[in-house]
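Internal QA ticket QA-208
Title: Verify multi-chain structure generation after dependency bump
Assignee: T.L.

Test input:
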Amino acid sequence: LGYAEAFRRESQIDSSLEKVSVPGPLEVLAHLRPVEKAQAQLRQAIAIVNHEVQLLAAAGACEVQLDIPYIAVYSVVGQLSPTQAVDLIAQSLAGVKVTKTIHCCLGDLGSKPAIPVHNLNALMPFVKQLAGIVDKVHLECSHPGQWADRACLRDVPKELEVIAGVVDVKTPVETTDEIADHIREVLRFVEPERLWIAPSCGFGRRTTDIAIGKLSRMVEAARRF
Ligand SMILES: [Zn+2]
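Actual output:
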């Protein structure tokens, strides 16, 4: 997929680079047409992703994050069972000795999520089964429906660290106080030792000013705790 090659190149520029994101198998296939033929390639896509993760581990990456918006979206709309979701994640990351992370979001289609229903609850049936399969789970919790479900963060298995995506990449820059309020609220459900704070998704479709503005305020807010 080219991520390991990019990691080797970027590591030469900055040797402190530790974490790399790669797309999951459904994401690799998402833009291929016709859809039926693409879906028939799922086994091969899993093998390709797993091979890439192995290459990243061999290249010295400490943490690999599987970006899986399609698993999140299909879980929310009921098109993927918890068992299927767990299998896709487990097989993609099988046999790799790095810190394993997943990122669950509902995508970013021009500042809009891919589906109109936004909840966190629908992800919990598979997230609850991820102990021993991943080490960290990043959950987007910035859409109102997701935020309303924030108490289910307490259902993430205790073996896992939680990365709470409370800084919304799709809105104007929040105030530091607003972000701090979100962190305080999330701390009601996740112990501070297990909690990371993050943006809800990637900043690839935002301006540099918005990305830097939000990340700076996020760091300021996190330092209050
Ligand atoms: Zn995302």
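Spot checks passed. Residues 69, 103, 105, 201-202 surround zinc ion (CB under 6 Å).
Status: verified.
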